[in-house]
## 1
Amino acid sequence: MHEMSLAMSILKIVEDAARPHQAARVTTVRLEIGALSAVEPEALRFCFDAVTRGSLADGAQLQIDQTPGGGWCLACSRQVAMAALTDACPLCGSYQIQAQTGTEMRVKDFEIA
């Protein structure tokens, strides 16, 4: 389950950024996760709750903003929406689509107390 290592990395990013501000605790963490990122949001929530116990982010609310996927169809030379990396082009049926958006995952922001 790669979500566990992602949750540990998120915690490190948040703690490293919160420490210089002498934060007593992190109350909210907001992530941006692309639809094509291969990250399972519910599994990530579970792992985040587990890795944050006893940390600055213990009990923090995890908010996930999901971004849509999109790609460039090499066959018909058009920008198309994608729900999965294995989708066919909705315009021509080709599977030669290069993902361009929706593959990212990032810590958007967080709130401290």
Note: The chain has a mean pLDDT of 97.
## 2
Amino acid sequence: MEAHFYEEENHLIVVASGKLDTIHAPEFTQFLKEQLSTKPSSCLLDLTTVSFLSSSGLQSLLTGAKIAKKENFDFAVFGMKEMVADVFSMSGFDQFIKSYASKEDALAKS
């Protein structure tokens, strides 16, 4: 699991790669919290290179969504592979976290 961030068009883009599983999710959650503590106007989570998403990884996403709601900024994900998107939607997370197919879509609609 690796993570980094950058800014584009006034959005904080947080990039996760590898597996968001029980082993790696706590580290990613801490990284995400640190980035969100800057209180960006918008955070887009790039999941294009995430190969596996477990319930622990979903918890990381939930943490980000809760922080965004509390601090009143937009939070969305984009670029999920089919397996990751299936876990995301079957868990019902698509009901409260916006998701986009690509970064271009996310930037245009956020």
Note: The domain at 12-109 is CATH 3.30.750.24 (Transcription Regulator spoIIAA).
## 3
Amino acid sequence: MAIKQFGKKGIFLTFISIAIIAAAILIFTPSDVNLKKDLSVVKTRVSNVNEYVLDLENVYLERTLQATGRRTIIALIKYMEAETIMTGTEVFFSDGVGDSLYFKDVFSQVLLDGTIGDTPQTLSEMTGNTYNDRLGEITTTAKNAFNIDTVYGISEIRVSQTGPWFVEVEADLSFNVSSETATWNKTATIKTEISVENFEDPYYIVKSLQDSGVKYINKITKSDTKFDEWDVDKVKDFITDGNYTHFENSNAPNFLMRFTNDISASPCCGIESLVNPNNPAITGKDVSYVDYKYWSATPTCPNPNLYTVNDITGSFPLFPNFKLDFDHVVLYNLLSDASLHCPP
């Protein structure tokens, strides 16, 4: 009898063991399922942050640099105008490294901080619109939308002329992106091209204010006329519209050089226009009316290199006093209508 009772106890203990194992399975199995779900969520979050990092590097940083680069150019032109009026002397930036108003350093300072000079002067056009301001907006948006932290470090800003109608702005920077799931540390050089079209020509503004006290506004617009299509009628339209053109191996300065009063040749990138004698800022001089020559040449007569063009100077639309140097008479295909000029 004792043997039978022991057998019953053994069976009872076996059932208890099975129950404990079953309970353990029930306890741990749901946990395993949740872990798989959590891993899927983590993978999705990491993927989303990675897409943000890619968009940041390939889209947002470049577009932001382009927008703030354009605004920086506008702010610098406005500064030159205001300072020329205030001081009564022409104000250009320096093209020499180390000068307090060295153009490329000034460009970087304005783009990043919105200030100019050793004793920083704030430019109103840049208030809330610097590169640092815009990067801060991206940081705030990413934090609010995705709980992502972004920290930037900018080591250098560069600006250069890459062609007649474009300047390039580059930013060397690093950025750290972190979330609750992952962290990215990256360095990059962000590049953007900015068209020079529709900017006011700073050379026209400063030189005209200094010369006559009247501002000559000439916005840069590319002419559709090709180098071998020039004639008298096209030149008349060119003067009236205030357009610009580029000649191969040009002797004209490029757009950025116009900020520094550097009128030397920029063979790859020089652009030029023709001064309109009918503009109120023009006083009428015995010089070539090619823009970079008009304000730099000393009137002399007789001048063996100065020509009038009959159908431009003396017929409708009338451009009195308009003259060109011999090289430009040839470039604009006006030789058959040109004659040496010397006032009586």
Note: Residues 202-340 form one domain.
## 4
Amino acid sequence: MHITKKSSVILGLWENEVSVLKALSSNELVISDLAILTQIPRTSLYYILPKLEERGFVEKVKRAKKVLWRKVDDKDIYNTHEEVLEGFKDKKEDGETKVISKATQITFHHGNKNVLKVFDEISAMPPKSRFYGIQPEPSIVGAVERNSLEKIIDFNNKVKSKKLIAEGIIHEKGTDAMTKTLSKEEKRKFLESFSDRSADTAKLPDNFLENTKAEIYLYEDKVAIVNWYEEFSVIIRNKDVFELMKEMFNSTKYLLERYDQNEKIARRLIDFDRK
């Protein structure tokens, strides 16, 4: 773990403690050598080192009857202080918005629980509004595997209850792929949440975007690029960018074969009843 000024503040490290950790980053040292390297008095090190050891930053080892000190492995330090680091990350980094102009904003979300805010914004649209999405199979599988099933079902139910119109470009095989890891009961609930939505979909050829683990949504005057695996989204609010992406979406959809996702899901639900 590279100890920066920012990370030292988050972890509550004093200047002398940071100097000790940097000195021990690639060396095992006795206190006398550590004192020379850091210019910190030995009497102070006898106090600093046990405190750092207690907090999981350093540990002592014996070599040929000598007591040496070394920095704990970075992964172990991170795991020990994960709650603090992640809490700070969520608070400080998520939802960062860059205002370019009155008409343009770019928002970044980190962590899938925050990326799901894209779904919150879509489901908050007025009834009978229209939104657009391009969802390759690997990405839609990631959405199911990396998020709470209840959250996705809740989003689908809100889309249905508000009669939002979903225009999509998707892989037909994605319908089956996204349910492979679900139990029978979960699979039924999941498929039911997709059934009878107001949707107009076209299907991607199986060999096109077959390895793409990202998706895109167009809604209101926003373009949202989402990657569930890397756990981030970028939302661009700009009318010209939205219109550009919408026309590209329409042009692509025009060239593709229409696909009735509702019909396929209805057939899957009938199969459940027959079993």
Note: The chain has a mean pLDDT of 86.
